[in-house]
Amino acid sequence: MATSNFMGVDLGSTTAKAVVITSDGVVTGGQIVQMGAVSRKGVEKAIQGALTMAGLTEQDLSYTIGTGYGRRLVPGVGRTFTEITCHARGVAALFPEARLVIDVGGQDSKVIALDDQGLVDRFALNDRCASGTGRFYEVLARALECEIGEVGPLAMQGTKDLDVSTMCATFAETEIISLLAGGAEPADVAASVHRAIAHRALGLVAQVGKRSPIVMTGGVAKNSAAVHFLEQELHQTLQIPEDPQIMGAFGAALLAMELSTGRTLMQLNTERLTQLELEVEAAMQPNNRPLPNCMKCYS
Amino acid sequence: MTSAATKPSSVNRLKSNDAGRHMISDYWERIFTANERNASVVWYNGAALNPIFQAAGLEWAHGEAFAARLSAQKLEKSAQLAAQEYGYVGELCSYARTHLGTALLAKQAREKFENGIVDEADRDELASRLPMPNFIVNSYAGCSTGQQWDELTMRVLGKEVPIFNVSLPFLWSNRADAGYLQGQEWEEASDYVADQLHKLIEFIEFHTKRPFDWEALREGMHYIKQAAEIRRDAMAMCRSKPTPATFWDWIASVAHINFLPAGPELVTYFSNIREEIVGRLARGETAIKDEKYRLYFDGIMNWNKLGTLARVFAEHKVAIVAGRYTHNAFWQEPHLIDTDDPIRGMAQHYLLCPTNHGFKTIKHFTEHDCDYYGLDGIVFHSTRTCRAFTGPQQMLARAMQKDHGLPSIFFEGDVADESFYKGELLESRLEAMLETIDVRRSRDLIASA
């Protein structure tokens, strides 16, 4: 029987992500495209990139699900889901034991509580301002005159806990500049801002209730300092997917596969859990393959 | 011919609401022409004191209502700009900001008229058409801005207009015997406000130089009580699933119950609504197409977005069935009104403003409504410039989730300033909540199988 292919497309505020999976859940293509804002060009580039990587054309796709702020702009979608459902779905597939997802994206952050079957139980989102989001780290990088990829390593070198009062992305830039003008070390400023952002995320966690284990998704999860300070605030280790930024698109692709095959979330979940139990048993036997721990191993 | 691009609306509004629009237009036209008729005009804010003004033979203009009307007609900007130029910042209650701007525009228009200047632009400007008040009455519950608003209006008008303030104490509900409509705090507060209403009537008698018509007040309250009872009956019929009418229909009739003249036409208006709902139930006609979710709306109305919000929810198959603003305000406890001696019952209604309760009471009636109407969740309109309404919302959301498993979302907006509303955020959050409700339903289904 020919393999079917499914696509998930996450059109966010600053990036477009596309993931292709096969009907057995194996990721065959993925693409992240940076863009200025929700953009049709960006989404087309991401889709074409993922298809090329998978060696497919659009005609080979059985079903596509769109997610993210621009989900209604994604061409050829069967239906759309919010990022909440898609991130939860992606995380539940890779980390079946996860009970909390912290997703920090370009313009918003969210905390999603999962039940014991990996389904969304509760969620909380930040206010409409960009405080504590990827945008905020961009503001920090600009004020510190460095690249976005450099703010994390710089923050890890900071030793002082400076008083950072505002969390408004607009006013924070002024505050950072005043700290620097007052003679503060850039590393201390970076560390303090990271710490303050992590502290702010605690508010969202409190809204849904702290649960463990916690998985962090979104582009900010690639910032080691952001993860470090969040772990400090939460007093526990965060689990990070191999590519946290693509988790929403991956979840969307899984949902596309599930809807296309007529299996409901609940049914699939039950099946998946059964499958995982079998895998755990199998993994206990010598010379057997390891437990799935990345997207490509998901089945 | 129907255009291919025209999508049929999922909203099936009550036709009897449309029929009542002329009542609102007629009312405002009467206000606008009050000076020409040498009628005395009172500007008031907060509680529905209009039956008192009506009995006293006054014309009454409600500041919030006028601000809401301007916003619903997208005519609020000039008033808000005037207020901003005067120095009132954008974070001030947009009702107050709009009304203060209105006062400035109306004052300028009056001065031009008196100086013989005929200004076409001003004449056509609705915001400037309010007649100058003969006096001002403030009776604001649960909101510190509201309590100061008319003091500011008086200053804007040159401190020449007499003002009377009815003080409405906040109902903290933290005494051992306190509860909704019960306890020592409730009884004492009722007496305290009733006493002030008697003093208000003395104030009106002094300024109008004529005795107050108590019989007219009793008659007016008789009609209010009847209309309120019929309205509550009709609301209760929306318990039926799918619902025959929604929160948006009740929003459309807020003006009628809140400040239109008390008379037989008010009773007829709400009787027609009830009759239409009875008819819908008999025919199986629903308020929205394919109702799938039933939600509660906590927040004052975003008047700029009335049609937009009704459409957004309906397109997601969401029936907003009840809300704190519609169901827990506006003569919602008609049994309290004694038509022979109405003052104490009126005082009690003024205390029952939905921004005037401690958290315990708000939780009490939200639980009641969510249970009574069989609701799946709550939408919180986080009204940007109304701290009084938004204050307890986060606590309420948590309590309703914790105690009743009801999910909720927040969206930001405002009563009369549309710049705070971002549609995409509402839609994303709404869809996320509906997906969560779907998951919960499938989980319940499996558990019960």
Rounded to an integer in angstroms, the radius of gyration calculated over CA atoms of chain A is: 20 Å
Shape of chain B: globular
Q: Provide the residue-averaged pLDDT of chain A.
A: 83
**Order of H and E elements of chain B:** HHEHEHHHHEHEHHHHHEHEHHHEHHEH
CA-based gyration radius of chain B: 22 Å
Summing up helix and strand content along with how strands pair, one would put the structural category of chain B as alpha/beta
Low-pLDDT runs of 5+ residues of chain B are none
Most extensive interface between two protein chains, with residue counts = A-B, 21 and 18 residues
Q: What summary fits the major beta sheet of chain B? A: 4 strands, parallel
How many alpha or pi helices of chain B? Answer: 20
Largest sheet of chain A: 5 strands, mixed
Helix content of chain B: 40-55%
Please tally the β strands of chain B and state the result: 8
Give helix and strand order of chain A, one letter per element, not per position.
EEEHEEHEEEHHHHEHEHH
Coarse morphology of chain A: globular
Write the layout of secondary structure elements.
The complex is a heterodimer of chains A (299) and B (449).
Chain A: E1 5-11, E2 15-22, E3 27-34, H1 40-54, E4 61-67, E5 79-80, H2 83-94, E6 100-104, E7 109-114, E8 120-125, H3 134-143, H4 148-157, H5 169-181, H6 186-208, E9 214-217, H7 224-234, E10 238-239, H8 247-260, H9 265-283
Chain B: H1 15-19, H2 21-32, E1 41-46, H3 50-55, E2 59-62, H4 63-72, H5 77-86, H6 94-114, H7 120-123, E3 135-139, H8 144-156, E4 163-165, H9 184-208, H10 214-236, H11 247-252, H12 254-258, H13 264-283, E5 293-298, H14 306-315, E6 318-323, H15 324-327, H16 343-351, H17 359-372, E7 377-383, H18 387-390, H19 393-404, E8 408-413, H20 423-448
Parallel strand pairs in B: 1-2, 1-3, 3-4, 5-6, 5-7, 7-8
Helix pairs in contact in B: 4-6, 5-6, 6-8, 9-16, 10-13, 17-19
